[in-house]
Amino acid sequence: xxxxxxxxxxxxxxxxxxxxxxxxxxxxxxxxxxxxxxxxxxxxxxxxxxxxxxxxxxxxxxxxxxxxxxxxxxxxx
Length: 77
Hints:
Elements: H1 5-20, H2 22-34, H3 39-48, H4 54-65
Helix pairs in contact: 1-2
């Protein structure tokens, strides 16, 4: 079942707090709101700055640590 916007926000906040702590998570959100953060532009700048092949290397490393276990759910619309 798909998550609604409230569930996604709660899950995102939980991730931020777990990784950064409450204070830094709140600071992160404050910075994003104040700077009118453009995620698409940031992604483009981030990946453009990567060395050639770095993304594929990181993806392969991630796949080794997190192998696909074949438990996907099919969503029919």
